[in-house]
Amino acid sequence: MRDDPMTRGKILVAHKNRIFLDALTAACAQSRLEVAPLDTGEAILSTLADTDDFAAIILDYHLIEEGGISALESLIENPAGLPVLIFGGTIPDWLLRLALNNGLMGVIPENMRLSALPSLLDVVLSGVVYAAPHWLREADKSERATRLSPREDAAVCRASAGQTNAQIAIALGCNLATVKGLMRSAGRKLGAVSRVQTCVAYAKIAEIAGPRSVSSADPTPLPGAARHLRENPSETQRV
To answer: How far is residue 58's CA from residue 78's CA, in Å, rounded to a whole number?
Structure first.
Protein backbone atom coordinates (compact mmCIF):
# COMPACT_ATOMS: atom_id res chain seq x y z
CA MET A 1 0.00 0.00 0.00
CA ARG A 2 1.51 3.32 -1.06
CA ASP A 3 1.96 6.25 1.27
CA ASP A 4 -0.84 8.77 1.18
CA PRO A 5 0.66 12.13 0.08
CA MET A 6 -1.83 13.85 2.36
CA THR A 7 0.08 12.55 5.39
CA ARG A 8 3.23 14.46 4.43
CA GLY A 9 2.25 17.71 6.09
CA LYS A 10 -0.17 20.61 6.01
CA ILE A 11 -0.74 22.97 3.12
CA LEU A 12 0.08 26.68 3.26
CA VAL A 13 -2.64 28.53 1.36
CA ALA A 14 -2.19 32.26 0.70
CA HIS A 15 -5.22 34.08 -0.70
CA LYS A 16 -6.46 37.65 -0.33
CA ASN A 17 -10.10 36.62 0.12
CA ARG A 18 -10.65 35.51 3.71
CA ILE A 19 -14.10 34.09 2.98
CA PHE A 20 -12.61 31.91 0.25
CA LEU A 21 -9.86 30.80 2.63
CA ASP A 22 -12.43 29.71 5.21
CA ALA A 23 -14.41 27.78 2.59
CA LEU A 24 -11.27 26.08 1.28
CA THR A 25 -10.13 25.17 4.81
CA ALA A 26 -13.51 23.60 5.56
CA ALA A 27 -13.54 21.64 2.30
CA CYS A 28 -10.05 20.28 2.90
CA ALA A 29 -10.87 19.34 6.49
CA GLN A 30 -13.41 16.85 5.14
CA SER A 31 -10.49 15.04 3.47
CA ARG A 32 -8.36 15.24 6.63
CA LEU A 33 -6.10 17.79 4.94
CA GLU A 34 -4.84 20.50 7.29
CA VAL A 35 -4.61 24.00 5.86
CA ALA A 36 -2.61 26.93 7.22
CA PRO A 37 -4.38 30.01 5.76
CA LEU A 38 -2.71 33.37 5.11
CA ASP A 39 -4.23 36.52 3.63
CA THR A 40 -1.02 38.57 3.36
CA GLY A 41 1.93 37.91 1.08
CA GLU A 42 4.52 39.29 3.47
CA ALA A 43 3.96 36.46 5.95
CA ILE A 44 4.56 33.56 3.56
CA LEU A 45 8.34 33.17 3.81
CA SER A 46 8.41 33.92 7.54
CA THR A 47 5.72 31.29 8.14
CA LEU A 48 7.76 28.75 6.19
CA ALA A 49 10.83 29.62 8.25
CA ASP A 50 8.95 29.10 11.53
CA THR A 51 7.91 25.51 10.86
CA ASP A 52 9.01 22.58 8.73
CA ASP A 53 5.82 20.53 8.57
CA PHE A 54 4.38 21.98 5.35
CA ALA A 55 3.93 19.84 2.25
CA ALA A 56 3.02 22.46 -0.37
CA ILE A 57 2.20 26.12 -1.01
CA ILE A 58 -0.91 27.33 -2.85
CA LEU A 59 -0.76 30.96 -3.88
CA ASP A 60 -2.99 33.79 -5.01
CA TYR A 61 -0.50 35.77 -7.12
CA HIS A 62 -2.27 39.04 -6.28
CA LEU A 63 -0.75 38.81 -2.79
CA ILE A 64 2.81 39.15 -4.11
CA GLU A 65 2.36 40.98 -7.42
CA GLU A 66 3.97 44.15 -6.07
CA GLY A 67 7.17 42.14 -5.73
CA GLY A 68 6.88 41.06 -9.35
CA ILE A 69 8.80 38.21 -10.92
CA SER A 70 11.47 38.12 -8.22
CA ALA A 71 8.88 37.52 -5.47
CA LEU A 72 7.36 34.64 -7.40
CA GLU A 73 10.77 33.12 -8.15
CA SER A 74 11.70 33.34 -4.46
CA LEU A 75 8.64 31.31 -3.54
CA ILE A 76 9.17 28.73 -6.27
CA GLU A 77 12.79 28.36 -5.13
CA ASN A 78 11.87 28.27 -1.43
CA PRO A 79 14.63 26.76 0.78
CA ALA A 80 12.42 23.86 1.86
CA GLY A 81 11.88 22.80 -1.74
CA LEU A 82 8.11 22.75 -1.33
CA PRO A 83 5.99 22.47 -4.48
CA VAL A 84 4.17 25.70 -5.33
CA LEU A 85 0.76 25.91 -7.00
CA ILE A 86 -1.07 29.02 -8.19
CA PHE A 87 -4.77 29.77 -8.40
CA GLY A 88 -5.60 30.22 -12.08
CA GLY A 89 -6.89 33.64 -13.05
CA THR A 90 -4.71 35.53 -10.55
CA ILE A 91 -1.57 35.77 -12.71
CA PRO A 92 -0.82 37.11 -16.23
CA ASP A 93 -0.73 34.37 -18.87
CA TRP A 94 2.84 35.06 -19.97
CA LEU A 95 4.11 34.91 -16.38
CA LEU A 96 2.23 31.69 -15.70
CA ARG A 97 3.97 29.97 -18.60
CA LEU A 98 7.34 31.31 -17.44
CA ALA A 99 6.67 30.14 -13.88
CA LEU A 100 5.87 26.62 -15.12
CA ASN A 101 9.16 26.61 -17.01
CA ASN A 102 10.93 27.66 -13.80
CA GLY A 103 9.47 25.03 -11.50
CA LEU A 104 5.87 25.93 -10.67
CA MET A 105 4.15 22.60 -9.95
CA GLY A 106 0.50 23.35 -10.58
CA VAL A 107 -2.23 25.66 -11.81
CA ILE A 108 -5.57 25.32 -10.03
CA PRO A 109 -8.44 25.88 -12.50
CA GLU A 110 -10.75 28.77 -11.64
CA ASN A 111 -13.84 26.56 -11.97
CA MET A 112 -12.51 23.62 -9.95
CA ARG A 113 -14.62 22.42 -7.01
CA LEU A 114 -12.89 22.97 -3.68
CA SER A 115 -13.64 19.38 -2.75
CA ALA A 116 -11.38 18.28 -5.64
CA LEU A 117 -8.32 20.07 -4.25
CA PRO A 118 -7.03 17.10 -2.16
CA SER A 119 -6.98 14.91 -5.29
CA LEU A 120 -5.11 17.60 -7.22
CA LEU A 121 -2.57 17.87 -4.40
CA ASP A 122 -2.17 14.10 -4.43
CA VAL A 123 -1.02 14.38 -8.05
CA VAL A 124 1.39 17.27 -7.38
CA LEU A 125 2.88 15.74 -4.23
CA SER A 126 3.68 12.60 -6.20
CA GLY A 127 5.90 14.77 -8.42
CA VAL A 128 3.60 15.44 -11.38
CA VAL A 129 3.01 18.97 -12.69
CA TYR A 130 -0.72 19.73 -12.82
CA ALA A 131 -1.73 22.18 -15.55
CA ALA A 132 -3.81 22.31 -18.70
CA PRO A 133 -1.94 20.95 -21.75
CA HIS A 134 -1.78 24.34 -23.47
CA TRP A 135 0.20 25.74 -20.53
CA LEU A 136 2.74 22.94 -20.69
CA ARG A 137 3.48 23.12 -24.40
CA GLU A 138 6.40 25.23 -25.53
CA ALA A 139 5.38 28.77 -26.36
CA ASP A 140 5.26 29.68 -30.03
CA LYS A 141 8.30 31.92 -30.43
CA SER A 142 6.66 33.77 -33.31
CA GLU A 143 3.83 34.84 -31.03
CA ARG A 144 4.31 37.54 -28.41
CA ALA A 145 2.54 36.36 -25.29
CA THR A 146 1.82 39.86 -24.06
CA ARG A 147 -0.20 41.17 -27.02
CA LEU A 148 1.50 44.54 -26.71
CA SER A 149 0.64 46.99 -29.45
CA PRO A 150 3.52 47.95 -31.78
CA ARG A 151 3.94 51.32 -30.06
CA GLU A 152 3.80 49.81 -26.55
CA ASP A 153 6.36 47.26 -27.63
CA ALA A 154 8.62 49.95 -29.06
CA ALA A 155 8.41 52.09 -25.92
CA VAL A 156 9.13 49.25 -23.51
CA CYS A 157 11.91 47.89 -25.72
CA ARG A 158 13.67 51.26 -25.59
CA ALA A 159 13.01 51.70 -21.86
CA SER A 160 14.51 48.24 -21.28
CA ALA A 161 17.60 49.40 -23.19
CA GLY A 162 18.02 52.26 -20.70
CA GLN A 163 16.47 55.13 -22.63
CA THR A 164 14.59 57.86 -20.78
CA ASN A 165 11.04 58.88 -21.63
CA ALA A 166 12.45 61.95 -23.36
CA GLN A 167 14.70 59.86 -25.60
CA ILE A 168 11.84 57.48 -26.35
CA ALA A 169 9.56 60.38 -27.27
CA ILE A 170 12.09 61.73 -29.76
CA ALA A 171 12.72 58.28 -31.26
CA LEU A 172 9.03 57.47 -31.65
CA GLY A 173 7.99 60.94 -32.70
CA CYS A 174 5.49 61.53 -29.92
CA ASN A 175 5.24 63.60 -26.75
CA LEU A 176 6.12 62.64 -23.18
CA ALA A 177 2.51 62.12 -22.15
CA THR A 178 2.11 59.54 -24.91
CA VAL A 179 5.25 57.68 -23.83
CA LYS A 180 4.05 57.58 -20.21
CA GLY A 181 0.67 56.30 -21.39
CA LEU A 182 2.32 53.59 -23.49
CA MET A 183 4.45 52.49 -20.54
CA ARG A 184 1.43 52.39 -18.21
CA SER A 185 -0.72 50.38 -20.62
CA ALA A 186 2.14 47.96 -21.34
CA GLY A 187 2.71 47.57 -17.61
CA ARG A 188 -0.93 46.63 -17.06
CA LYS A 189 -0.74 43.96 -19.77
CA LEU A 190 2.46 42.60 -18.25
CA GLY A 191 1.03 42.52 -14.74
CA ALA A 192 3.65 45.04 -13.60
CA VAL A 193 3.14 47.88 -11.14
CA SER A 194 6.25 49.96 -11.87
CA ARG A 195 8.54 50.94 -14.74
CA VAL A 196 11.28 48.64 -13.45
CA GLN A 197 8.92 45.67 -13.22
CA THR A 198 7.63 46.40 -16.73
CA CYS A 199 11.17 46.32 -18.12
CA VAL A 200 12.08 43.16 -16.21
CA ALA A 201 8.90 41.45 -17.41
CA TYR A 202 9.68 42.48 -20.99
CA ALA A 203 13.18 41.05 -20.69
CA LYS A 204 11.78 37.76 -19.38
CA ILE A 205 9.36 37.55 -22.30
CA ALA A 206 12.26 38.11 -24.69
CA GLU A 207 13.69 34.81 -23.44
CA ILE A 208 10.54 33.10 -24.72
CA ALA A 209 9.66 35.11 -27.83
CA GLY A 210 13.19 36.06 -28.84
CA PRO A 211 14.99 39.37 -28.17
CA ARG A 212 14.38 42.47 -30.25
CA SER A 213 16.79 45.21 -31.13
CA VAL A 214 15.84 48.79 -30.40
CA SER A 215 15.87 49.69 -34.08
CA SER A 216 13.52 46.83 -35.03
CA ALA A 217 11.03 47.93 -32.38
CA ASP A 218 10.31 51.33 -33.90
CA PRO A 219 6.89 51.80 -35.50
CA THR A 220 6.32 54.60 -37.96
CA PRO A 221 6.99 57.84 -36.04
CA LEU A 222 4.62 60.76 -35.89
CA PRO A 223 6.51 63.55 -37.73
CA GLY A 224 4.38 66.33 -36.29
CA ALA A 225 5.06 65.32 -32.70
CA ALA A 226 8.77 64.82 -33.40
CA ARG A 227 8.98 68.29 -34.91
CA HIS A 228 7.15 69.73 -31.91
CA LEU A 229 9.73 68.22 -29.54
CA ARG A 230 12.63 69.49 -31.61
CA GLU A 231 11.14 72.96 -31.57
CA ASN A 232 10.35 72.75 -27.83
CA PRO A 233 13.38 70.97 -26.33
CA SER A 234 12.44 71.97 -22.77
CA GLU A 235 9.62 69.41 -22.84
CA THR A 236 12.10 66.58 -23.32
CA GLN A 237 13.67 67.34 -19.96
CA ARG A 238 10.55 66.53 -17.95
CA VAL A 239 10.94 62.80 -17.54
So the answer is: 13
20 and 104 share one domain:
yes
* Burial of residue 134, with CB atoms counted within 10 A of its CB: 0-12 exposed, 13-18 middle, 19 or more buried: exposed
- Asked whether residue 140 is assigned to any structural domain, the reply reads no
Asked whether the whole model's pTM tops 0.70, one would answer: no
Cβ partners under 8 Å of residue 105, min gap 6 = 56, 83, 84, 85, 124, 129, 130
Q: CA-CA-CA-CA torsion for 169, 145, 62, 60, nearest 10 degrees? A: -170
* Band of pLDDT at residue 149, cut at 50, 70 and 90: confident
- Is residue 226 one of the residues assigned to a domain? no
Q: Determine how many CB atoms are found less than 10 A away from the CB of residue 162.
A: 9
HSE of 181 in the Cβ direction (CA atoms, 13 Å)? 7
* Same-domain check for residues 19 and 68: yes
Pair 130, 194 in one domain: no
Q: Which of 112, 135, 158 is the last residue of a domain?
A: 135
pLDDT (tens digit per residue) in 100-115: 888 999 999 888 888 8
